[in-house]
Amino acid sequence: MESKKILIIEDEKSISDIVKFNLIKESFEVEVAFDGLTGLNKALEMNPDLILLDVMLPSMDGFQVCKKIRETQSTPIIMLTAKEEEVDKVLGLELGADDYITKPFGMRELIARIKANIRRTEFIEGSSDEVTDVQSFGDLEIDMNRYEARKQGVALELTLREFELLKYLAERENRVFSREQLLEEVWGYEYYGDIRTVDVTVRRLREKLEDDSSEPRYIMTKRGIGYYFRRP
């Protein structure tokens, strides 16, 4: 099986060296960039299977890099941050990152997240040739196998995580799920993040899906419990 390519964009050499060493032991191919601009160029040139992206970088910070990558690529991005501040985690997710991990982190946890995100991407790519399964919910169409959603015939630019959340809820319409349940089921592994991750993803999804995100018709909130999908 072809080795998966990981791009590490991290300016602290001591961190990038140990991460690279452990990923090579796991049979990954690894490239490293030590500043944001170089990392962005490498991401666009090598089209990696996953990117580990530090927030604090010289020349261009991780948020800017993430935003630029998302303009052309859907490559899974895990943000690395030394900050515990909620705003950094939220901003990374809002710019299209799939995941975040706070320094210092354990290698087992990091590798588990990397493998989970790559498996998810492989599953989607492997599903692209399956029989189309399009389900309609009012003016919204969701192709469950091809991971595509259309509103009034226009394709929605959803990240992988946003689509997975939409798909999960739509397949179980009217069932209410807590944030903890969604973290476990949609994120696909023992997630070490906090429930704010779900709220951010729901907000981004509503902004793309709803005519008026302040008055949603599809992704509904059950106050004090969680979220559910409602057919308009």
Describe the fold and architecture.
There is one protein chain. The chain has 232 residues and is α/β, with parallel strands linked by helices. The chain folds into two domains: 122 residues, Response regulator (Rossmann fold), CATH 3.40.50.2300; 99 residues, Orthogonal Bundle (Arc Repressor Mutant, subunit A), CATH 1.10.10. Helix content is 41%, strand content 21%. Strands 2-1-3-4-5 form a five-stranded parallel beta sheet, sandwiched between helices. Strands 6-7-8-9 form a four-stranded antiparallel beta sheet, with no helix packed on it. Strands 10-12-11 form a three-stranded antiparallel beta sheet. Strand 4, helix 4 and strand 5 form a beta-alpha-beta unit. The N and C termini lie far apart (45 Å).
Specify Rg, calculated over alpha carbons.
Answer: 18 Å
Low-confidence spans: none
Number of strands: 12
- In the sheet with the most strands, the strands line up as 2-1-3-4-5
Order of H and E elements: EHEHEHEHEHEEEEHEHHEE
Question: CATH homologous superfamily name of the largest domain?
Answer: Response regulator
Number of domains: 2
DSSP strand content: 15-25%
Our count of helices gives 8
Helix content: 40-55%
What is the CATH topology assignment of the largest domain?
Rossmann fold
Largest sheet: 5 strands, parallel
| CATH C-level category of the largest domain | Alpha Beta
Average pLDDT over all residues: 88
